[in-house]
Amino acid sequence: FFFLMIRRPPRSTQSRSSAASDVYKRQSEESSNTTQAQQQIEKRVNSRLEAILNEYFLTEFQKFAVKKFIQDNIANKENPKVQRVREWLLNKINNSFPKEVPDFQRGCPEIIPGLTATPWWDCSKFGWISKIEENFNVIRQELLELKGQKGFQPYRAPSWASKIKAIDGVGGMSHDSGEWNIFYLFLHDMKFEENCQKCPKTVQIIEQFMPRHYHHAFFSAVTPNTHITKHHGPTNKKLRLHLPLMGIDGSRLRVASETKEQETGKCYIFDDSFEHEAWHDGKDTRIILIVDLWHPDLSDEEVKFLGLLQKAKMRFEKRISEQSEDKDNFYSIIETSKGLIQSNDWWTINEKELKESYEQGNNQNGETEKKLE
Fold first, then answer.
1. Which stretch of DSSP H or E encloses residue 208?
2. Residue 188 — left, alpha, or beta (φ > 0 → left; ψ -120 to 50 → alpha)?
3. Is residue 286 a contact partner of residue 33, using CB atoms and an 8 Å limit?
4. Which of 102, 225, 298, 358 is deepest in the core (most CB within 10 A)?
5. How far apart are CA 357 and CA 353, in angstroms?
6. pTM of the predicted structure, to 2 decimals
7. What is the pLDDT of residues 291-324, one digit of tens each?
8. At what angle do helices 136-144 and 200-209 cross, to 10 degrees?
9. Which of 240, 218, 254 lies closest to 296 in space, CA to CA?
């Protein structure tokens, strides 16, 4: 499938001059040797490609579709729309890592070459951001209605993915002080149906106004004196949006070498493949909406290709996790964590902020509902 990406030397044609017959014979032998070597290279490349595709646990139909996409698009060097995934796939075939990677990004396990590498992004470059900020109060109102309901769960990861083990024995943690709780909407190709039903307008805002969202979205809540330790996201093929909703005073977020104090109701976009960490030293629980987005440099064709691979792998891993006795995996831990929080006593709200929220929400609800229709 990569024969178009490997430059073949031109084959010799027979000389019309009988005097050049010995030269032609020698060229034919060299050409034959070159062709054999070329075939061996193609065989190794295709064998390696097959092994890579097997890492994503594709069905036979999916594998056929992926191979056809590779042959029709990626193997065509003249197609600039798939340049990033072409380089990424070649790196995987060669078991190599991109050389020109910023220092703060080097801990990220997957780097797609050729993508703009900027820790903090200018939100003015995203025309739809204003729609999100205009609906800030609608989102915050739905968040406040969750305080008397279940749905938040501790943020946990497999124990092998963290140096900090949870006291209750359920996976590992990414914070070394305070509490970090999550209300999932979308994650790892899963839609948390019950949670989404509790926040229908927030889900609609995400799906209506955020182009190419990554199907990772959740409310992230940290209690006072929480420190989320420095870490990297799993890939640079996405960016992360933060919309602070409440309790933001006393919070700081560092991405690479720049630390920012965020403002309530204002969107921020950063590349979480860069090393980042967060602190909350305020008096009340800080809650933000987090939504991941496909990197804007990726073409629609590349998003479709990478998305197919990602979904196939996640579905397989989810199916295996349900059958495995070992519950130290992402899916099992997420499921187990659902029952760890019995009350929302950890959630403290500034009374002034709460009053302002209800007043602004009541004033805006009618107008916003018309916009969402």
1. helix 200-209
2. left
3. no
4. 298
5. 6
6. 0.88
7. 999 999 999 999 999 999 999 999 999 999 888 8
8. 150
9. 240
